[in-house]
Amino acid sequence: MSSEAPSSAWICRTCANQYPPTPEPPPECRICVDDRQYVPAGGQEWTSLEELAAEGHRTGWTELEPGLHQLTVTPSIGIGHRGLLVTTPEGGVLWDPPGYLDAEAESLVRETGGLLAIARSHPHLCGVLAEWSERFPGADGRGAPMWLPRRDAAWVLRPGEAVRWWEDRAEIAPGVTLIRCGGHFAGSAVLHLADAAEGRGALLVGDTMMVLQGNRRVSFMRSYPMLLPLPERYLDALLASLDGVRYDRLYGAWPGLVVEEGGPQVVARSAELYRAWLTGTARDPDQDDA
Ligand SMILES: [Zn+2]
Ligand SMILES: [Zn+2]
Q1: How many angstroms separate the alpha carbon of residue 268 from the centre of ligand 2?
Q2: Which ligand is nearest to the CA of 254?
Q3: What is the pLDDT of residues 174-211, one digit of tens each?
Q4: What pTM, to 2 d.p., does this model score?
């Protein structure tokens, strides 16, 4: 842990979320002590951007499709999720930023038209969101707008005047729309890209729906690391929030996790299977008496 700096914006090593600058780290990580996360057996550990840079962490960009790049950190930090940058004629929209950034990360954003907006799927995947905002001030002198759902206001670690609260839907750039689905968190969201996937539409899902290995299924959980299922009423609300949304592709929160096509069918089939096991209408003949 760095101690020479008089004040540092502390980053939790477990979840990679960044707190406001303070001389001493917070007493605990609010994200990790929640029942959806965990504090490691070895105890809470803090770091900072400066310390992560000194340890050799680096960022890299990869183009996933025209107008969409993924941002990764190597070696990975926190839970190793990827950020996604949507480029639009009006500027970039950064989704689920990881817990580290450097000049390399900034340069692609500057080269592709700056930062119009920052948004996230849920409180676990905010990373250094506020740091991005500060580094890309707008004409009004405030940081780049941080679009956060009001329903998750209690989970905002670094609030500020750049926050733009939203309720159930918000179009934050032409054809780029936040949709609140709930479930994992009340403010769990997806970002709809109307023009992605060759015009068929895509959803950036974070873990609002988890794209699973094999890229043919998704899941819906109260907690992924703690393996708590999602009650059926929250699943119903999540599915209803996507009624009428036109999309074909799903981009998950980790590199390689993408449902290339048939997204709505994948979501419907996955929900049916999940519901069957959740409610017990599915059965394992090896364990049930005939
Ligand atoms: Zn944490
Ligand atoms: Zn999560």
Answers
A1: 21
A2: 2
A3: 999 999 999 999 999 999 999 999 999 999 999 999 99
A4: 0.96
Which has the closest alpha carbon to 81: 15, 131, 134? 15
User: Which ligand approaches the C-alpha of residue 44 most closely?
Assistant: 1
Distance from the alpha carbon of residue 184 to the mean position of ligand 1, in angstroms: 16
Q: 34 CA distance to ligand 1 centroid (A)?
A: 9
Contact (Cβ atoms closer than 8 angstroms) between residue 253 and residue 125: yes
What is the number of alpha carbons within 13 Å of residue 38 lying toward its C-beta? 10
DSSP for 13-42, written as a single string: TTT-PEEEEESS--SS-HHHHSTTS---TT
Question: Quick check: helix, strand or coil at residue 81?
Answer: coil
Distance CA 15, CA 77 (A): 8
* Domains in the chain with CATH codes: 8-53 (no CATH), 54-279 (3.60.15.10)
User: In angstroms, what is the span from residue 210 Cα to ligand 1's centroid?
Assistant: 20
* Closest ligand relative to 188 C-alpha: 2
